[in-house]
Amino acid sequence: MLLTKAYYLCKPFLPWSVRMALRRTRAKALRSSQAAVWPIDESAGSPPPNWSGWPGGKRFAVTLTHDVERRLGLARVEELMNLEAKHGFRSSFNFVPEGDYRVPDSLRASMERAGFEVGVHGLKHDGKLYSSKAEFTRRAAKIRSYMEKWKAVGFRSPFMHHNLEWLQMLGGEYDCSTFDSDPFEPQNDGMRTIFPFWVPGPGGSGYVELPYTLVQDFNLFVILRERNIDIWKRKLDWVVEQGGMVLLNTHPDYMCFEGAAARDEFPVSHYEDLLRYIREKYEGDYWAALPRDLARFYRGTTTQPGVKAGGRFSAVTV
Ligand SMILES: [Zn+2]
């Protein structure tokens, strides 16, 4: 933990190649020491109590999400949307409100029209959101105003930092800053479930937490340097067997759409292979849902109909 903190303190001063060498060495060690819980943590497969299954009796859910880190990622959003639509999928894109780019209103409007979802990814992408409760509170007010302006109901923190209690301050319908099991993350406390869960707040408030369940693209292809999607497929097949939620976070910033991949990129064909794999192997078996639909569905299953608190449904964790 101390080493991790030291790494993030020094990170801005280290050249990319040194940072990658350190992360790869650490990841290699973690991969063997955490083999019992990554990529598959068997204990994460149990459904929530009183679980009655996915809509339409589907075997599992598929939810695709993206974080757009920089201007380069923003420039690839439409190309990625087209790729997903070609395979019959829609996804959500989480944007940084005060990062190194601005999201054009016209892009958000065309995304909504095409059935995609817009979410919020931090305030800035500087790793300081959780530096103190006062800082989080200050930024939360701004994040809330962006969520309102963008009509966004979901949030993801940069670097997957999370404090589920503080996240109540955002007033969103869901958060997706956690994972079932991911020892490679700086804050690596896995939620140990491949299902959504309810995070109760004061006075009947709360939100749905959606942990991601497939390893992120950057870790898989840039840090671990995998040359195929076998790890994604293995985990996905396991999630299907448990009837869980396939939730993936990928980044257009790291997807190479043409030419040779840069040092921090991977060929977008890997991502397309995954979409094709899901469709060809499991056609008709899955509920392809935007995260907001997943959150609303889950909330419905944990809510006592007709019970309201403070103008919002009071959800009861079952
Ligand atoms: Zn990010």
Task: Report on this structure.
The chain has helices spanning 2-10, 16-33, 71-75, 77-86, 105-113, 133-150, 217-223, 230-242, 268-282, 291-301; strands spanning 60-68, 92-95, 117-121, 154-156, 174-175, 197-200, 206-209, 245-250, 255-256, 266-267, 286-288, 303-309, 312-315. It is 36% helix and 17% strand. With 318 residues, it is an alpha/beta fold. The two termini are 34 Å apart. It folds into two domains: 1-33; 38-303, Glycoside hydrolase/deacetylase (TIM Barrel).
Descriptive tags:
318 residues, alpha/beta, TIM Barrel, 9-stranded mixed β-sheet, two-stranded parallel ribbon, 10 helices, 13 strands, disordered C terminus, binds zinc ion
Name the CATH class of the largest domain: Alpha Beta
CATH superfamily of the largest domain: Glycoside hydrolase/deacetylase
* Shape type: globular
Along the chain, the helix and strand elements come as HHEHHEHEHEEEEHHEEEHEHEE
End-to-end Cα distance:
34 Å
- What percentage of residues falls in helices of 4 or more residues? 25-40%
- The beta-strand count equals 13
Q: What name does CATH use for the topology of the largest domain? A: TIM Barrel
Number of domains: 2
* The CATH architecture of the largest domain: Alpha-Beta Barrel
